[in-house]
Each structure stands twice: as structure tokens, then as C-alpha cells.
């Protein structure tokens, strides 16, 4: 069975960014850079760089979902460049290139391309911004480089605006560590240039905050307050502590590389202290400390996901490469080639986080649903007065955006998506049903998956089904599959 992001209809939340980009191209006349900027200001996307990447992919490769994934190669190229710079700060070019190649085997690195989500690329840029701030005195930078660093920091925040609860305080901590790393005597020299960089970053962020501020606040408030019960991860303090190390997320994203990196960092600290004391660690210890704070912060967060944990994974990867490079510098740099050979032989290449085997029949069900929607949309007007509404009771087996994207690509028709599963009030949920032309009831596997995720609207599954079946305006269509979903179609408004 084929695995990967393109082996099945795109799932949450890859498809959210694919759909967001495609609807702008197909229905908002985004055909030029000026039109794109105007559209982004009027209708701010959740993750602007990811949406922009998808627009590039669709523009170059047409209405094919592989286009945005190919365009996503920029993130992998940036990762290789950043890792090489970290290694090159300690080693010659050839061993640095060997270490860069090894990083390509880490699963989270492969996810930069294979999973179309902003978290990984945003975490990558964030990690490198922190490294640039801490790794050397900012006072040694020329003015133009300080300005560029400030802009780069702003870009790191802009990559995923809703991650500000992590990026802003941790970049702030990186700035503080940069000031104090060289001892009390150097603080006066380091403070003004770091403040200058921070000011440049704030100036660059000001217009972006104006456009994205309201959307960002509302999303963060909903995630941390309103829908906290949905996104909370079950488990005790120990489960939280190991989640990103040897637990559920760390095992998938880092695999054996967590143990290797952890051992390398610990060994570098021990060897450096033995040979030359704290001075021999210079700013490396500050960077290791920064990564530790991020690890503890992410561990304490009640809401966890494999993607969000990238804000620890990439700083950890940079710290590991820094540690290995420092150790090789003190021993034999050609060992990097030996490590690469061992990696090639014993470590599988990085693959997607996604696995189509989880939902085997989605590729079979999608065209049936989109064909029914396209056919009925021609004969029945939109019941909400604008565009035909498509309500989704469960998040799976097919997301609302996957269906909307397929309908748009095949039939040049835009439908409104109503995520019924996220609504908590039954009367509110039924108002959205009344505005819909189509309602998809999940199959049994999708229902159980949504209930396990504690999606509140799915609890009304039986009530909704009973009402739709009792209403003569609705017809019921069982989708052909071993575990079928059911599409309810409104015959008249």
C-alpha cells in the first residue's frame, strides 16, 4: 500500500492551506503580486508564507495537489543551508556537508516537504534566528547586517503568526542570552546592538501586526481558552516531559536522532568543561540552555501536536549539529564521513508524517461525493443565499476542505464549508445545517476518530441524522465503500 501525503485526499490541516490558496487563485482573481498583496490585506490567511507557497505551486503546476508540495522544497533547501552554516562555524566545508546530509535523514526534516503545514518551516526559521542571535556577539555585526537580522526575526514570527506565544518570548530570551553570554564586562557593548536589532524587527512587524493582529489574537484565544478542552493532551507530567523526546512526538519526528543529539550535547559540555572550563563552551552553552528552556516550555503546554513540537525539534537539531561539530573539531573531522556512511546504511530515509493506510477508502469516496455535489448544485439554488453550503458532522474520513478543493478543481465551483463538529450548541449547529445544501455524516471509523478527539459537535451525530432523515427536503446517499460515509442532499430549500 502506498504511503504519503499524495496517496490519499489531503487531510487536516494540509488541505486547509491548499484550499485557502486555490480559492484565491480560482475565485479571487489573484493573478499578480499586487493583486496577491491586496487580497492578503483584505482577507488575511492563517499562515501567509504557507499560503503563498501553495499559490506558487498551483500557479506553476496547475490544479494538481503535488504542485504546492514541490514548491515546498524551498524549506528543505533552507534547512540544508542553515545546518551547513551551523556546522561550518566549527568545521571545514567537507565534514560540514557530511553532517548536513545526515540531517536529511531526520523524519521532521522530510516533513518540511512531505507535510504541507507551516509549523515545520516556521520552526526552522525560528531556530536559526535564535542561533544567529546567540552564536556570536551582535556588536561584531555591521549595521546593515543588524538590520537584516531584525528583518529575519520578523520573518520568523511572520511565518506562523499564531505561534507568537512561542516565538516572541523565546526570541526575546535569545536576545537576553546574547547580551549576557560574554560576561558582565561585555554587557554594555552588547546591549545597544541587540536593542537595535529588536527595534528593526518591531518596525518590520508593525504593518504585519496591523493586518494579522486581530486574526492572530482570536485564533490564539480560541485555542488556549475557548477550545482548550478539545486541544488538551491527556497524560501526566511524565508523559508531558518525554512527549518530544522519547515519547509519542519525539519517536516519530526525531527517532534515534534524539538519543544521538542528546548524547552529543552532554558529551560536548563534559569534554569542554574538562579541557577549558566554561570559557571553552563560549556561546554554545547559552544556545544549549535556550533549547532546554524551549523543551521545558513545550513540555508544560497542555495542547500538544507533532507539528507544533517542531518549535523544539529544529532548535534541538541545530544544537546537536553544533555539539557534534565541536566534538569533531577536537578529534578527527573525517569522522563525519564515517557517521554519514553509517547513517546511509542503517537509518531509513525521512518520510511523511502522514500515512494513507489510516483511511484506506478516502480516494474511493471523494469523487462520489464531489460528483453528487456538482450535479445537485446545478438544479438547487444555494440555501444560504450566497454559495452552496457543505456541512461536515465529523472531521474525518474526509475533511470539508478536501471536498471543497476537489469540487473547485474539477468543476470550478466554490462551496461554503460549515465545520459542524466544532460547534457546541445544538441550535446553533442546526442553523448551519439549515443553511447547507449538503451534509456529510462520517463513516464509523471517522465518527470514532472525531469522538476520540472530543470534537463537541460530533456528540450530536445521532440527533442530526434523525432530523435529516425525518425531513422530506433531504435525500440520503450512501457512499460506496466498505465503511461508507453518508451524504445528505437537500432537494429544495
Per-chain topology:
Layout: H1 14-27, H2 33-42, H3 48-61, H4 66-71, H5 73-88, H6 93-103, H7 107-114, H8 118-135, H9 143-158, H10 164-180, H11 187-226, H12 228-231, H13 237-242, H14 248-253, H15 256-276, H16 278-281, H17 284-300, H18 310-330, H19 335-346, H20 362-377, E1 389-392, H21 400-411, E2 416-419, H22 426-434, E3 438-441, H23 444-452, H24 461-470, E4 474-478, E5 486-490
Parallel strand pairs: 1-2, 1-3
Antiparallel strand pairs: 3-5, 4-5
Q: Which characteristics define this entry?
A:
five-stranded mixed β-sheet, 5 strands, 493 residues, elongated, 24 helices, mainly alpha, 4% strand
Describe this structure as you would to a colleague.
With 493 residues, the protein is mainly alpha-helical. Helix content is 64%, strand content 4%. The chain contains 24 helices and five strands. The chain has helices spanning 14-27, 33-42, 48-61, 66-71, 73-88, 93-103, 107-114, 118-135, 143-158, 164-180, 187-226, 228-231, 237-242, 248-253, 256-276, 278-281, 284-300, 310-330, 335-346, 362-377, 400-411, 426-434, 444-452, 461-470; strands at 389-392, 416-419, 438-441, 474-478, 486-490. Strand 1, helix 21 (400-411) and strand 2 form a beta-alpha-beta unit. Helix 8 packs antiparallel against helix 17 (284-300) and helix 10 (164-180) runs antiparallel to helix 11 (187-226). 44% of the residues are buried.
